[in-house]
Amino acid sequence: MPHSRPWRRRLAAITALALLAVTLTVPTGPAAARASGYQALIRRASYGVPHITARDFGSLGFGVGYAQAEDNICLIAENVATVRAQRTRWFGPTGEDGSNITSDLFHQKAIDDRTVERLLTGPRDGIHAPSQEVRDQVRGFAAGYNAYLRRTGPARLTDPACAGRPWVRPITELDIWRIHWATMVRAGSAALADGIIAAAPPAVGPPHQPAGSSARQPGQSTRKQTGAAGPEQAGEISGQLPAPKATAVVKARDGAPAGLGSNAYGLGSDATVSGAGMLLANPHFPWDGPERFYRMHLKVPGRYDVEGAALVGDPLVEIGHNGRLAWSHTVSTARRFVWQKLTLVPGDPTSYLHDGKPRKMTARTVAVNGSGARRTLYDTHFGPVVLVPGVFDWTADTAYAISDPNAANLRALDGWLAMGRAQTIRELRAELDRRQFLPWVNVIAADRFGAALYADHSVVPRVTDRLAAACIPPAWRDLYATTGQAVLDGSRSRCALGRDPDAAVPGILGPAHLPVLVRRDYVTNSNDSYWLANPARPLTGFPRVIGDERTERSLRTRLGVDQVRRRLAGSDGLPGTRFTVDRLWAVTLGNRTYAGELVRDDLVKVCTKHPVAAASDGTSTDLTAACKALGGWDLRVDLDSRGAHLFSEFTLAGGLRFADRFDPAAPLTTPRRLAADDPEVRTALADAVRRLAGIPLDARLGDLQTEPRGDRRIPIHGGRPEPGAFNMAVDMLVPGVGYPKVRHGTSYLMAVELGPDGPSGRQLLTYSQSANPNSPWYADQTTLYSRKGWDTIKYTERQLRADPNLVSYRVGERRA
């Protein structure tokens, strides 16, 4: 392990400091534990992965908070600044992912409304309000983070991103709950933050409509428009706001948060050599920022024992396994909110009719301390009023609000705690049915007994077929049919979302309306809808709000199924006809490019026949070198693959045009033939050649696609989803250079088998455990990923103690 000896010396110092505050001999029992103090054992295995054991959930949370602060304190501190509505104060009005002003106004509104505080009240049953166990875990996490910060001191932090910065401060459990809530609304209210902030009634001035993108949405435009804001009564604001992006809201293919995705396989007894269940977890998340995963193994003896990963700042494992069950998540296609079309009271654009009676909107001026930002925001009994220029406008007659069921969802930590305790697919299904906590993801799981599960049990607004037929106005029916976005008639109470009798809470679809499939062979998902979780048993007949059926699948979905089918047929070049862990790893990182397999040969014929083509700007372009590079390409996105970048740019330029149509009777093999006679194919290739000017068209992918770590550039394999890569790496082309930074893609990898002697397998965090460039765990797993290596599952004591780099220390303190 890199730098293991210096790190052992550092741990010895940490241990000595920590033990000063630890009570080593303590009474037993939950009440005694809460009274005596926090105490956790942290055992750091290879690559810095903490295995944390504690006697109660408060102490477990303390250990998690302490360990995550050691590795990623800057990420957590910045996330806290976000939910405290302090981004503009500390980072300026414009952030990398959008407007900090918009972010601050959105979060300040939640603070002013006491949104999280209200959700923390009620019976502590883990459904209506968080349980005591989870509250203890969150409280302990904040205490552990604060203990590390107090003992280290902001000025002595080793991460230059935040060392000595004034925004690195002690945190509270309320901060952690607010971070958790922000994750819940990531695909709903938060995705529409621009529209919520921009909404203003026409009677008091036109809405503020500068161009730009949604707040905190990676990869979207952050262009600003200058100009004065409206008068204070309409919502005065200092600084410039991005306006909502109509195309992002209306034309999105599904309800997924921007920039996120995943692959997952659940393999049952008929698909594995051992007959035990097996799982592939392959989430695709950002490689930088607060949405990074963090590997950890958490244990309260006799009560909880789970290994896996969670987003940095979250106190419980979200993707992982226990001794008999493993699970992962993929981003679901279901919509997370519904539009409510408001019929306004004539002459009063801030009042709307409901069952013929006027109701006044709630107007509140939100002011962000330290930034000067002020805005009057408008709410209805459905939720906030939202503006999307040219689509959902606020006129004298009509306005639009949204209903976001996840805005009342604080159930997820209890849900993941329950998942970690489930021992079988049957028990897992019962917890999913009872809690309905997943904000925007599917579940793919497998158990020791060889059952595999797919379920979209996420929080979905209760838009049944009957409600859609009766309550979506005619002008909006095509939008619902094509995208799943529902615009309901908000003037009639009978068009309310209502409650399914089996639903955990009002306003969402109950389990009877949600797709679920249990198989003995396999289930899979790569961010398309539930329809073909297993093609042998298509799931059909569900409300459109959840996803589409009998429609074209993405190339990544098609490749994902094809890989399983070839493995079970023994036609993929690997031994046998079933999966082992090593074969599952080899399939996942096989780096096939499905579109290349379909059309490359025909594309070479096109450019051989037409060696000169006009680019989009009319420039005549020689395709000879491109043709040669494509002909020599191995159809993969491995480090040694030459020409893979050219095919990717050709695809992004719109060249992937098919001559045949999608056939719902053959959804995994159509379309498949290149439209060779379409001149746009040649134009796209010419555009790709021009974009790659100064970069050899036959260069090795590993020489172009890299990830910086200090002064090193680590070569990265994998490719974009548009050409059909399963192992994703999404990056931006730097002209004349290549792709020097991965934006998002394969992040946490886990291939686990649930055998009779306990779980075993492989796992890896592609961007490494720590974002701190001075950490010994800043680049080690990234280097390992570059060569398709792995770390082993270390769930049992035997597995953990066999690690030659294992270092143990205790942390804790007395409780106030």
UniProtKB/TrEMBL annotation:
<dbReference type="InterPro" id="IPR043147">
    <property type="entry name" value="Penicillin_amidase_A-knob"/>
</dbReference>
<feature type="signal peptide">
    <location>
        <begin position="1"/>
        <end position="31"/>
    </location>
</feature>
<keyword id="KW-0865">Zymogen</keyword>
<dbReference type="Pfam" id="PF01804">
    <property type="entry name" value="Penicil_amidase"/>
</dbReference>
<feature type="region of interest" description="Disordered">
    <location>
        <begin position="201"/>
        <end position="242"/>
    </location>
</feature>
<feature type="compositionally biased region" description="Polar residues">
    <location>
        <begin position="214"/>
        <end position="225"/>
    </location>
</feature>
<dbReference type="InterPro" id="IPR029055">
    <property type="entry name" value="Ntn_hydrolases_N"/>
</dbReference>
<dbReference type="InterPro" id="IPR002692">
    <property type="entry name" value="S45"/>
</dbReference>
<dbReference type="InterPro" id="IPR023343">
    <property type="entry name" value="Penicillin_amidase_dom1"/>
</dbReference>
<keyword id="KW-0732">Signal</keyword>
<comment type="similarity">
    <text>Belongs to the peptidase S45 family.</text>
</comment>
<keyword id="KW-0378">Hydrolase</keyword>
<dbReference type="InterPro" id="IPR043146">
    <property type="entry name" value="Penicillin_amidase_N_B-knob"/>
</dbReference>
<protein>
    <submittedName>
        <fullName>Acylase</fullName>
    </submittedName>
</protein>
